[in-house]
Amino acid sequence: MTRPGNALLSLLHLCDSLFPIGSFAYSDGLESAAVNGLVTGVADLREWLDLCLDEGFGRSDGPAMAIVWSAVERVDWDAVVTIDEEVTALRASSTTRMANRSMGRRLLKAWQGLHPDVRLEPMGALVLAERLGPTLPVAFAAVSHCGGIALRDALAGYAYTRLAATISAAMRLLAIGQTDAHHLLSRALVRVPSTIEDLLERKAQPESFTPALDIAQMTQQYVHARLFRS
After folding, report:
1. Is 25 inside a domain boundary?
2. Is 9 domain-assigned?
3. Euclidean distance between the first and final Cα of the chain, in Å?
4. φ and ψ at residue 203, rounded to 5 degrees
5. Is 150 contained in some domain?
6. pLDDT tens-digit readout, 1-37
7. At 73, which CATH number?
């Protein structure tokens, strides 16, 4: 049994930008949106963060994580595979699908290397059999559960990593200072707990309706002299 103090440290480690999943290489379409004048400053970035939180996390990745959490607890790997396929299908951009799976695989491999856990071995076997990506939210939920991290804490940690990654990318793409950037991040983080409570109460399946974000992700590969891969 993982002690609470160890679970907190595990979550901090998992959420740290130093954790080797390669998230620094991706902007989730923000670079394309910046180049095409859709996100140019603080006001636009605020709306972009709201979209990432409300739709990307609140409607898609968050619900997927909650379902995977329960599936891992009852050792239902078929359910994990089904949600992983659903999350992959909801991503309109092929490069984003590949990037998300790449980060998920790296997370699972790194975690198993650091904290070998027999409960995750079936997941590794499904990856080798090419039945499972896994996508990033699926991998994050599975390793969090096995690390003794509470579901709400895992959801909060995941939301933080995605929002913080967006801010990190924004500071390299936009004329925005650290103070303004972190004001926006702080504003978004205040809303994370209520977003988590809402998605847990709804018990919904993952869904997505983010056409502007999808188009930005699909056109990312055509940006000249890119800083990010997708």
Report:
1. no
2. no
3. 39
4. 50, 40
5. yes
6. 444 468 999 999 999 989 999 888 889 999 999 999 9
7. 1.10.4190.10
21: in domain: no
Domain count, the chain: 1
pTM above 0.90, yes or no: yes
Who contacts 22 (Cβ-Cβ below 8 Å, separation ≥6)? 102, 103, 106
**Is residue 26 a contact partner of residue 230, using CB atoms and an 8 Å limit?**
yes
Rounded to whole angstroms, the Cα distance separating 63 from 206 reads 5
> What confidence tens digit (pLDDT) does each residue in 53-76 have?
999 999 999 999 999 999 999 999
- Judged on CB neighbours under 10 Å (0-12, 13-18, 19+), 212 is middle
Range of the domain at 134: 43-222
Instruction: Give the C-alpha separation, 160 to 170, whole Å.
Output: 15
DSSP letters of 157-222?
Answer: HHHHHHHHHHHHHHHHHSS--HHHHHHHHHHHHHTHHHHHHHHHHHTPPP----HHHHHHHHHGGG
Closest CA to 138 of 163, 105, 92, 89: 105
| Backbone φ and ψ of 92, nearest 5° | -70, -30
Residues 6+ apart with CB under 8 A from 161: 15, 23
Residue 177 and residue 35 in contact, taking contact as beta carbons nearer than 8 Å = no
